From TrEMBL:
<protein>
    <submittedName>
        <fullName>NAD(P)/FAD-dependent oxidoreductase</fullName>
    </submittedName>
</protein>
<dbReference type="InterPro" id="IPR036188">
    <property type="entry name" value="FAD/NAD-bd_sf"/>
</dbReference>
<dbReference type="InterPro" id="IPR050816">
    <property type="entry name" value="Flavin-dep_Halogenase_NPB"/>
</dbReference>
<dbReference type="GO" id="GO:0004497">
    <property type="term" value="F:monooxygenase activity"/>
</dbReference>
<dbReference type="Pfam" id="PF04820">
    <property type="entry name" value="Trp_halogenase"/>
</dbReference>
<dbReference type="InterPro" id="IPR006905">
    <property type="entry name" value="Flavin_halogenase"/>
</dbReference>
Length: 427
């Protein structure tokens, strides 16, 4: 009688969203998963607004009800980059493509919900940091777990796992260990943000507001259930000139910007002021013999359109779907497929976000509004509705990578009529 093939063994390093969803989905399909949970996450994390593509992932994990109980329902987004009326993006325009809503997320609690889902699975949890070493020559691996780490998993009898997954976020443990080069974006911005009480919100409940600031860069206003998350993403040298401390710099930015100052005359800061920088980074490699990277450990893009959480979760989801529970994993092919999909996704989001930074998106929108007035009629309405639906679906994560949608957006962005993208560009 032939014995069944051995279960695939995976070591996941890090319990953030990408590591937790990967562990949960792998364990659900019968993979032998061990997650090493070392280190404490910060109390406040950038990335508090989700896109509609996030909702199907929550439903797959069975956590949407838990998220809805603590998150703020998000019906859309407002973009204000020029003198014309802001773009009001309602998620109703993507009905039938994705759920017509998303959530603004209190990150520590949201991250904990995903972690709890992984803990309810058959994942083996080790409440210690794993130590990863460069593998010795001839081992057919690039990295290994050290003996002390392996000893924490007696079920593996001292054998290395089939795959070590780096889910350590922006620490990028394996990439730094192997000195893998990265590509960063051209901007050198820094972000300061905080939570405020007493903040006026002019839009529909839950609608986020993205606006160009008066001094370069942009700002966000993200309504949470009990407060407002307010942040600025500004060139570092400008932000540093605003004060000696993060709190001073953020308060000065709010006071100097007409949109923010009008919304926050009675504001009261109720949190610390975290600092983030390096907003666009993609590793030159996301895998090698015996390892792979998910989430921010592979790459992340500028947060303007709020894709970060979905990209991180989709990264773990994508890798989990490719791995078989019992042998038969052709690792080179499998990991190349994973990297290709995720690299294409990151690139597509970078391209879309750049159209906001360089002003092309807003100039194209202004052109469309102008044409609607100049050339009224059903054909123009149909075309405008078609473009708007594709634009919305790209911003929501459904059509971001679709070749037709990208070409359509390229066409309208490169052919503005009477509106100069420079007038809408973010300095």
């Amino acid at each position: 009688m032939s014995s069944s093939p051995p279960r695939t063994r995976i070591a996941v390093i890090g319990s953030g969203p990408s590591g937790s969803i990967l562990s949960a989905l792998l364990a659900d399909k019968g993979v032998d998963v061990t997650l090493f949970n070392g280190g404490k996450r910060p109390d406040m994390i950038v990335g508090e607004s989700g896109i509609p593509a996030l909702v199907p992932v929550m439903r797959r994990l069975g956590i949407e009800d838990a998220v809805a109980a603590l998150a703020q329902h998000k019906p859309g987004a407002t973009f204000s980059f020029g003198s014309e009326s802001p773009i009001q993006l309602s998620f109703r325009s993507i009905e039938g493509i994705l759920p017509a809503y998303s959530y603004n997320l209190p990150r520590p609690q949201f991250d904990q919900i995903i972690e709890n889902r992984a803990r309810r699975s058959e994942t083996r949890w080790i409440e210690k940091e794993a130590t990863i070493l460069v593998a010795p020559e001839g081992s057919n691996r690039e990295v290994i777990l050290d003996d002390a780490t392996l000893a924490l998993v007696p079920e593996w009898q001292g054998e290395q796992p089939d795959l070590i997954v780096d889910a350590t976020g922006r620490r990028r443990t394996v990439a730094k260990l192997l000195k893998i080069p990265v590509k960063t974006g051209p901007r050198k911005d820094a972000a300061h943000f905080a939570h405020y009480a007493g903040w006026k919100h002019p839009g529909p409940p839950g609608q986020i507001i993205i606006s160009r600031t008066a001094f370069g860069g942009w700002s966000w206003q993200i309504p949470l259930k009990d407060c407002m998350s307010v942040g600025v993403v500004i060139p570092r040298e400008i932000l540093n000139s605003f004060g000696a401390t993060p709190g001073e710099r953020l308060e000065a930015a709010i006071a100097r910007d007409p949109i923010l100052s009008a919304a926050g005359p009675d504001r009261k800061r109720i949190s610390e002021v975290p600092i983030y920088s390096n907003y666009q980074l993609i590793s030159d490699r996301a895998y090698g013999p015996g390892w792979a990277a998910v989430g921010d450990a592979f790459g992340f893009v500028d947060p303007m359109l709020s894709p970060g959480m979905w990209i991180a979760l989709r990264s773990g989801e994508c890798l989990a779907d490719l791995i078989q529970a019992e042998g038969g994993n052709r690792w080179d092919t499998l990991l190349a497929t994973y990297e290709s999909e995720m690299r294409g996704r990151l690139t597509a989001w970078q391209e879309l976000i750049e159209k906001f930074y360089n002003g092309q998106m807003m100039a194209a929108y202004a052109t469309g509004e102008s044409f609607m007035k100049m050339i009224p009629g059903p054909l123009m309405k149909i075309f405008n509705r078609h473009v708007d639906r594709h634009f919305a679906a790209m911003c929501c994560g459904a059509y971001t990578e679709r070749p037709y949608s990208r070409k359509l957006l390229d066409f309208v962005c490169k052919n503005p009529r009477g509106f100069d993208p420079k007038d809408y560009a973010i300095g």
